[in-house]
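Margin note from the TA: students keep mixing up input and output lines. Inputs are the sequences; the output is the structure of the whole complex. Example:
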Amino acid sequence: MGRDGRDGFVSRRRFIELAAGGLACAAAGLSIFRDSGEAEAAEKLITKVSRPYDAETPVEAFASWITPNDRFFVRSHFGPPPSDRIDPASWRLSVKGLVARELSLSLSDLSRFEEVNVTAVVQCSGNGRAFYRPRAGGVQWRKGAVGNARWTGVQLRDVLAKAGVQAKAKHLHLLGADRPVLPSTPLFHRSIPLEKALHPDTILAYQMNGEPLPLLHGAPLRLIAPGWMADACVKWLTDLTLGETEAPGYYMQTAYRYPARPVQPGEQIKPADLRPVEAMIVKSLITSPHDGGTANGEIVVQGVAWTGEGRIVSVELSADEGRTWSKAKLTGDDVPYAWRTWEHAWRAPRPGSYGLLCRATDDRGHTQPERSPWNPSGFLWNGWDRITVDVTA
Amino acid sequence: MICGCSVGAPSSTATNEPPASANLRAEGLLLSRCAVCHSTDLVTQQRLDRGRWEATIDKMAHWGAEVSKEEAVMLADYLSARYHPDVPDQEPAHEPEHAAEPLRVETPAAAGRPPGETAHGEVVYAHNCQACHGSGAIGGVGPKLSGNPILGDEDRFWETVLHGRGAMPAWEAALNAQEIADVRAWLGSLK
């Protein structure tokens, strides 16, 4: 800081900028300590938190049906583990708890199971949190804490079958190799119900879009629970433990929970009225034109739409603040768990600034609301997407 | 990249603005106690009322943040005056130059490099450095400092502590010259 000051004087603003800059640089500088790819990622993503690195994808990158690895959103509570904890040579996946026999599997052990692929949307539960009013605490994600990738790995149920699941097991506890800076901070210890763990589409993934899982995305192994929010998709996996109850601790018992009934902002909610966040809900984004962009003539509005464990059946567009809606055309393939692309040709009646809105409906009859119901942690935002475009001619 | 994160960014028109000296101390606490685990951009993007700031600071203290009761109040004063629900979203900062009064930052460089006191250095280390560099300076998230060649390069040591390096934050606002000298003396005493 002093090096930018003159004669020991630094303007308060400069002081503050420099102080913050030191921390922002910390993200890039992490590669000095461990080659995490954060510096490269920072150029292609919107940084939300410098350390541990959290970043969202600019919406225009969703023009590609598959979100490239280096543009895929990044979220973790503690950042990637030190390399020695996930060294492919010494890394093991431990399967234990209520099993017939405990397993300790290397990557080559895992490669003996049948390989499967699933293209699935992975989305942070807090995606869109910044749109809630009143504000919810946490990373202020806007639109891009979501992505669609092709995941390759093995069926979790095959691995669990090899260990032999005891009849009284009801939940699978998941723990990764990432650790907080301070030992007094709770671990990111999560669990999913056994039914989801045994679902044939739930996989232990070691590849993302045909490449070995990148460090920021959970190398060497992460869970992919298709249709569910990303807090189930634990990265840097090392421990699978079968238990009778949900995982203990803050990140399962307190965090990532959603009220089971409508609540008022500021209302005290009893823990018994909160449920774990699980499946995604219907949602869509306009990927083109860009928010704040200009256009003329006929515009082909394009976007993506997705839901949890169902299918998208329609996407609608409005250019008059939601008074009237026109059906968009669903394009591309209808792939379970992946997002669906759509487009709609639109011509502005006259030059001017227009708000364009979109909303999707899934096969369970759920349609995106104008605004999502408020909840204390700002989860599951799926309000209508909105962009503005200036039509010049 | 967008890093729109300045510790003191969108100042509010709140009436109960704490005095400048308290602000400076709170900024120091943000860097030295909160930024041990996460960068301050996570803090400055929040818009919470005082009750929720207090609850957040309390949660962090339970999780291991070294914050005394008095420091927790100072942080709650500072954060709830700046980052309350009525403050607009942070735009990528274009704060006008005249927005803030110039403030004299007393740099340890100006205060020189006093001789260090080993015993006190151990205390300062435990409160400020140990979380990342480990008990006994054997390393952790940050590098091992015991026996580290940087201890033999006094300029580089001071430069690193004052201004940060890589993942390490700058400590200029949090530690005074005597404390830095004490930590260096204690590190040098480790075998």
